[in-house]
Fold each of these.
Amino acid sequence: MTAVTALENTDLSARTAGARSAVHPRSVARPLLYGALVLCALLTLLPFLWVISGSLRSLDEIRSDPGAWLPQHVTLDNFVRLFRTEGFGRFMVNSVVVAAIVVIGNIVAASAAGYALAKLDFAGKRLAFGAVMAAMMVPFTAVFVPQFVITVDMGLADTLAGIALPSVAMPMSVFIMRQYASSIPDELLEAARIDGAGEFRIFFRIFLPLAGPAVATITIMSFLASWNFFIWPLIVAQSTDTYTLPVGLAATSQAAAHVTDYGLMLAGAIVVMLPVLVLFLFLQRYFVQGISGTGMR
């Protein structure tokens, strides 16, 4: 009896030791993973912290010590000069108009394209989806020349519509919406068709409300693309009346004798970043859901 009890205790001790050895690597790996993620986050934030510090320094101080992380004398003069810059309000309005056109266009056009590719049967469906995938792989530098020629031929050069039109239905937005639409049950849409609802009514009344996370995702991505895009507005906008905020700030930050006013430029960078950060904070939860939902099928 004593031998049996000793054998059972030995077996229990062995299993406990095995369980501890199995848990131990996991308990060590998790803090290491979190530490690596925190380190990556800090490295990512370093440029933003330097931009914030530089925007609070005078131009003379920036030139005397460009690599300093903390300002010796905090000043808001750069922001005051920025908002007093001639044309700043017009640049801001132009960027808002272009961003609104791009965001609304992607919500409607890209969502409709994604819905059609996922839920409708038509000739050339696979070919159309392949074209969307191919368009995602083509860099902007390979298409901006023919894109500019088409814009000029349409009479949209030096207009806000010409700046916004090429981004109204981005391939990435179509892809995200198509993938998310594939996760919505077909039975729900078929029930609406049986009740006599048309495709437009199904799209606006049933599909779009269900695709809220995907809509939030393409809203953030399209707004970010249109708000921060520099090369295309610089090519199309040929007068200060159609400059967007990044182009206008780049033009106005050039002081006399082609010397860059870095304080004004860094303050402008902060102003450009703020709307994107605010939008992301409001839609962050839906953005994560939309990205994760694209891989459900």
Amino acid sequence: MKVLITGAAGFIGMHVAERLLARGDEVVGVDNLNDYYDVSLKRARLARLTPQAGFRHVDLDIADRPGMAALFAQERPQGVINLAAQAGVRYSLKNPHAYVDSNVVGFVNVLEGCRHAGCEHLVFASSSSVYGGNTRMPFSEHDNVDHPVSLYAATKKANELMAHSYSHLYGLAATGLRFFTVYGPMGRPDMAYFSFTKAILAGTPIDIFNHGRMMRDFTYIDDITESVLRVLDRPATANPAYVKDSPDPATSWAPWRVFNIGNHQPVDLMAFVGALEQALGVEAKKNFLPMQDGDVPATYADTADLQALTGFQPATEVNDGVTKFVAWYRNYYGV
């Protein structure tokens, strides 16, 4: 089928596009190559895609309303995977308007495009950040998520609500994926594991927040891409057992749903740092700091619903994933 991927030069976007192309799908990749982080890395990802048959790149900002409308009218994709977004919890405290422009304005342009082009299934990136102040573990899609602790999280929750309204009004099949701390080769330089690696090799201290008392459900990129493809191939349907006077936040009477995409194995942050140290063969200098605003002490994904739908559950062990990331990092940066 023809699949339109927004954020195709991004970390997840590139890997998903490669998998779709490998199985014979046609991919239209949309990305504006903004400079939130190193543009050369985005270009390197794109360079892996452009020579492949069936791929076409469109340089476009999803917040460009006329441009997005024209693109959908021309391409009329059967599937859409929206991965374009202004990412990063901490940056949302500094530049909130960037999150509204991309994650809210841009997303409504995607929804409108899907609606008018007759898209069969919209899969869109949400985030584990939507769980906000929740402390019951593991995080379940069936729990309420109305208390975000960052604007980034609020925009992702808004995406889920916006998509639901289009599912209800126009019958658009829409599935939101709450990604949990994605890592791996060609990852995002703004992520902690990436900056940790750079600092450790440079011999400079790494900042460890909440004095190291953090847990994260680190999820390897190959598990993320497998989950995305399996969900894409199973368009959302209405839940016939949905009861409106006892609402289930994970499903709906409309063809809409959300899933956690996580490893279901939370790892202590210090253990993750230890895995990096082992793979690099260098001990990190550590600078312990208090918790940052907008952050949470722990994430832990309940993935039972994902497994029930797709028969798949992420399971890459952190030591294996970190070893693969470090091998890529040393090769790519020549260190």
Amino acid sequence: MTPQSPVAVLLSPRPAVVEAARRVGARTLVLAPDLSRPGVREAVALADQAITVDWTDHPQLMMAIGHLTNLPARAAVFGFAEASALIAARANEALRFPGNPHAAVAYLTDKAALRGKVNQLTGAPVRFEHCDRAAHLVAVAERVGFPCVAKPRTGSGGQDVHLLRSAADASDLAAQLAGEPALIVEEFLDGPEFSVEANSRAGEHTILAVTRKYGPRDIAGADITEHQRTTGYDMPADLDEDTRERIHQLVVATLNAAGQRSGLSQTEVIVTAEGPRLIESHAHPGATAVHDLLRLATGIDLIALSVASALGLPLPEPAFGEPRWAGIRFLRLPSGLLEAVEGVAEARALAGVRELEIAVPVGSHVPEATSRVAGHGYVTAVADSPQELEAVLRKALDTLRPVMAPPSAPAAAPAPPAALSGAMAREIPLADVPREMLREAVKEEEHTAA
């Protein structure tokens, strides 16, 4: 890299993001409110330069990077999560850097605005209504029909998503909400769920992968109230050609409806009995686990591809030629004090297993799995067919044997042991988004980076 190399401005990135940008030949400038935070600190050590700045404050951000407009080299701002993607788009537009239009990212951030547009432009409408007052929630839910889902119009990461089975559920939720919650209430879509990764250049959208997403709804007898927790992914999804093509068409129509012009996107789809239906779409890649699976399955590095595309650098070649199947299953340990996990070495040694991690230290209590992903660990594997992939993942999980300390006092109703097996429209411009909401999003992104 030289002083004339293009500059990638990275907002609170993970270390892997910095590595990917440097790998395609970009100079890297890391911006974060606190450069010493875990995760960000490691990214700073890999970067060419770093600046402490609250990038949720647009004037501060412009002061920090405005000088880049005077450089002969191309520059662009990158955000790879909900809040940072929106802020990066506004900065790129203000400085006339390459990037996605701010309006497109705003549409993909506002679920109600996007839903309205997609309903008009496709043959796959989904019933929905806005709900801007908690007192109106019961009536809105009744008009949409039960079961239905209530979620924030600008939320992300599966946070604060509620399944409402009845008017009683809606009434209970309304009592917990602020007076003006800004929700979207939409029909519950029943069927298998898929995540679609795409890259856009000059308004042309390339589908990179369709991933099967697993959760409690895939397990017989599972409580539907946990429908949002992810338990695993398979890539590519094992689909017939007609279903795959209909998913592709829905995703392209969604991105066109939003005005997506460039960069990465992730679109979530449910394949119902009537065909694919949109859940939501985002102007940033999906979960880190999906990035990793794409690299394992196809050799494509999403971040490297995005940076190279925006900065006019040579596009990276896939790490290998022949695609394969890749999958991940998240582990959910029993509650209590973890004394050991037996069988780890044997599971790691299985043919096809690429990585296996137990996130809970031995000797500590297993935390409650309250996030969208049960974060007690994971196993990833590759195989030559979807059937072989499922067999490898299942065998690895079945090989693991958690050893829990006996309870210190008799429990009235001990919980059954948990299985480790994982088969499991108003537009809102950035200027109108409350600063505290953006700051909380930054904290969440930096926590994810760690």
